[in-house]
Hints:
Number of strands: 9
Order of helices and strands: HEHHEEEEEEEE
Number of helices: 3
Distance between the termini: 117 Å
Oligomer: single chain
Largest sheet: 5 strands, antiparallel
Amino acid sequence: MSVKFMIFASLTVGVLCSPDPNYRPPVYGAQPKYEYLEIPHCAKNTTKSWCLEDSEYPQHEVQQALDQHYQAVLAFYKDKLANTENSVDGLDKLNDESYLCPSSTDYIRPFRAINVDGKWRTIVNGVESYGIKYTQTARIEECDVVVGATCPLVPSCYESKCVQKNIFHRFLVYNPYDYAFPFAIEKFKLPGSCGCVVGAFHL
């Protein structure tokens, strides 16, 4: 009896475990690949690669995420401040300076900006979590003259032109599509100075 039962059981298991030759696994649609490429509304009417005002800034979502990942984000933030030479948090006054090409200098705290990969990112700025207010400031300097124009303070016997120079800044950003850890440090290229390139001398 036991032998017959074992043979019957093995045959039954074999039937249950054998795949149906007519079975086809369901085909699901491809998962959306979020690259966060959409242009924010604050950038619709500007040629700048950053937004200083943003009516759609996700303040509440950023604060919730900061609270949830408090220790890890704080370590990111402190590392960013300690290892970024261009960090100017706390500065708010401009010294009188003179340049060969006229320029405008400002200190900005962007809410959104385009990173070095050409993608708009949400920058953590002005958001408070557990008594710490996260602010990120960058010093920018933009040419007041048309790029390529002759340097006004250089004698005309020299070839010269004004050029916009850029500098890289590191910002703590919030990515709503990264559910595991929605924060990262990314690089952004911002105008750093207006330089004058001097060429050959002409009699």
